[in-house]
Amino acid sequence: MSTTALPQSRPxxxxxxxxxGIIFLVTGLWTLSLLDAAGKxxxxxxxxxxxxxxxxxxxxxxxMALTLAPLYRRxxxxxxxxxxxxxxxxxxxxxxxxxxxxxxxxxxxxxxAEGTAMNFCAPLIVLAMSPWLLGERSYVSRWIAVLVGxxxxxxxxxxxxxxxxxxxxxxxxxxxxxxxxxxxxxxxxQADDPMVTLFYGALVGSVLSTLAVPFFWSAHTPTPVEWxxxxxxxxxxxxxxxxxxxxxxxxxxxxxxxxxxxQIISATGMGWLVFGQFPDAVTVLxxxxxxxxxxxxxLIERKRHHRLPAADPMESV
Length: 317
Prior knowledge:
Layout: H1 18-44, H2 49-66, H3 68-76, H4 86-109, H5 112-119, H6 122-133, H7 140-156, H8 165-191, H9 194-212, H10 224-247, H11 253-260, H12 263-275, H13 281-307
């Protein structure tokens, strides 16, 4: 789930396009699982997470500059550099880079499925903090979802499990960072076109990681296969986020949110195919509890949203 943007509200197309939004979302999330697997593979091969992030964002911004930026100009007549809130975009980009570094550090020591599952607690953290940080109403159903979700987290990270204590600490930090990213995503996408937000994230990540990478450069010369994996991180990151953003043009966030958890299927599959790691029965139970909590509150929020059409659409998380 590397730096996966959490669900945001979007203008959406009529119901006949709903299936297209679901396909875009699931395909985008599964593409991001390829990015996560590549990051884990490089990290356990000895590459520092800063070097991996540098390649991921440098290829990302180059790919966008050559492909998506011209499309954006033709569509809007504006430069993709033009932002209504540049300071917010710069701050969000810096947090996005931090989120990537933390999550790749998690994947270095935690199986892919478990690392992804811990990040699924990010929407629940947003629910817990939204009354104070976003001024949203607090509902009993949201607090129940948070408690159930964290119960699932405790099952996944249980004492005696496969995740070491420092992996647990990093996983919790990663989920918290993702929650903060979700809040900044809301604000940034209210101010600018999602394509601008996507580009600024890549640009800031590229610039900051370029400044840092000389201090963390690996002395190991990448093999042709490793170069291909390094380059793939930028391409899969761009395509994955582009598809995810496209999904919200065809369906509401409250409709798409339950499908967000389909990424656990791709994460588990990639963990098994690439690393030979498959969660045990107790971990699968914990992952299921986290996913059920998130999907359950998404369905409740969707019903609440339709009962109260005048309510703030940002409440649908």
